[in-house]
Amino acid sequence: MLAISIYALIRVMNIITVKNLVKKFDDRPAVDDISFDVKKGEIFAFLGPNGAGKTTTIKMFTTLLKPTSGQILINGFDPTTNSDDVRQSFGIIFQDPSLDDELTAFENLEFHGVLYNVPKKIRRARIEELLKIVELEKRRDDLVKEFSGGMKRRLEIARGLLHHPQIIFLDEPTLGLDPQTRNHLWSYIKDMNQKEGITVFFSTHYMEEADRMSDRIAIIDNGKIVAEGTAEKLKADTASATLEDAFLKLTGKAIREEGANAVDKLRTMGRIWRR
Amino acid sequence: MEKIKKYSKVIYILWLRQLKRYSRSRARMVGSLAQPTLFLVAMGFGFGPIFQKAGGGNYIQFLAPGIIAMSIIFTAMFGGMEVIYDRQFGFLKETLVAPVPRWTIMLGRTLGGATVSTAQGLVVFFIALLVGFRPENIFTAPLALIYMALIATSFTALGTAIASTMEDMQAFPLVMNFLIMPLFFLSGALFPLTGLPKAIQLIIRINPLSYGVDGIRGILSHQMHFTFHTDLFILLAFTLATLAAGSYLFSKIEV
Q: Could you tell me where the DSSP H helices lie in chain B?
């Protein structure tokens, strides 16, 4: 009896639980037997060099990829068997843009709200509220293709939060943004974390960002978790002054090769065509 | 009941998206009308006299339904293959992480693409009127919409099914040259089916588009090779099959 209730309690406290998770692509492991937990309401940074397995892990969390083996629980649900419950639980900001350029800012949000079954009244109110928060209310009816990179990111954040998710996944959300926009984005995210208690799970290459924003950090390299804990702990364990030094000590200084996938190739082609 | 309501909203919003995207790209609209118009004018007037001499009657009357079908299948296949563009521009992921069954996404997209293609066919019908085409019976002419909609739905679903298995546009010319072109040329859209070599006859009988062309032509020009029942039955079966295959392959997409 006691054992069951303790187990239930742990499930409530940990909004993400990962046990012995493995993902292989043609026998080559991209994620190699990782286990960790993320607590409810935490801001959790997931760091690693290119090709370490960050995006693959996030894709498995968000039902876009099926694990080869191991177990994941997101908000108490298994992405492989209860995918719709998992999907309703999270919002996501992908590494690359994922808006429809031919629709307006409002239409992109409206589309998302309908997909997530947010009732019309609540949906409309929430859209106006979020557009204000990300300071896009004046661009409400402009096509997204006229937006700058920073504006698109802001709109994606608004979209990711629209259905009141329990968790928000951010895969390198600040990549290629100027310090002003980055600062702004983090203030929205921190705000949502504090006001609505949303758990934030993010990956980044900016170590200073991870140091400043996160409650806890996990570092993944070659598909394995090589360190886990608070920024202070990682720095202390490696006797480093900064998180960047700690990161380099833990993952080595060799530059990683990452094969271009089909989508990358397609993007390059797309760029050539548009010229 | 609750679920049906939810799913139909999802299907509706995806349908609406396809329509909005199409109505906003004027270039695409004009561009996709150029080809059927060229075919109507060049072939219609070019082969008209020979067709007449051979005892086939007015060629425009014969050709126009075929060109209407052509514009529908081209728009439909391209519309279905927009899945690849959505993959390229990232929007596909937004729909794949949504908490709804993938088949609802596929069905909404397909119905949207089908609506656009049917409308395209309708525009070509009016262009044909300008070139001299006259439907035999103006009151039964709207029945042709049934066959047009079936061609539109089945080929959008086919395009979606193919695009779901493709990672990039590399294979696109292959699909264009080895699927869309043969489907069109070997459908009886351009020439009558009587007196053809057995092998060609067989291919045309296997080609589902032949039955669509035949149905439209039967209604608009009162000329037929098969029967309305055969056409309808085969097109319905083909539509269901492509929708099933498309939903299955779309739901298997991993990004």
A: 2-24, 26-53, 59-80, 82-88, 91-96, 102-131, 144-164, 172-175, 181-185, 198-206, 208-221, 228-251
- Residue A145, chain B, CB below 8 Å: the answer is no
Residue ranges in chain A whose pLDDT is less than 70: 1-12, 257-275
State pLDDT tens for residues B141-159. 999 999 999 999 999 999 9
Q: Cα distance from A237 to chain B (closest Cα, Å)?
A: 37
Digit-coded pLDDT (tens) for B91-141: 999 999 999 999 999 999 999 999 999 999 999 999 999 999 999 999 999
- Given CB atoms, is A54 within the 8 Å cutoff of chain B? no
Is residue A220 a contact partner of residue A46, using CB atoms and an 8 Å limit?
yes
Enter the pTM of the model. 0.88
Asked if the C-beta of B167 comes within 8 angstroms of chain A's C-beta atoms, the answer is: yes
B169/A85 touch (CB, cutoff 8 Å), yes or no = no
A177 CB within 8 Å of a chain B CB:
no
A186/A213 Cα distance (integer angstroms):
8
- The nearest CA of chain B is from the CA of A256 a distance in Å of 22
Nearest CA distance, B85 vs chain A (angstrom) = 9
ipTM of the modeled complex: 0.89
Q: For the domain bounded by A11-97+167-254, which CATH number is listed?
A: 3.40.50.300
Domain ranges of chain B: 2-251
Within 10 angstroms of residue A54's Cβ, the number of other Cβ atoms is: 24
Chain B residue whose CA is closest to A120: B9
Amino acid identity, position A252: G
Q: Name the 3-class secondary structure at A1.
A: coil
The pLDDT assigned to B101 comes to 92
Among A85, A90, A265, beta carbon nearest to B168: A265
B111 touches B153 (CB < 8 A): yes
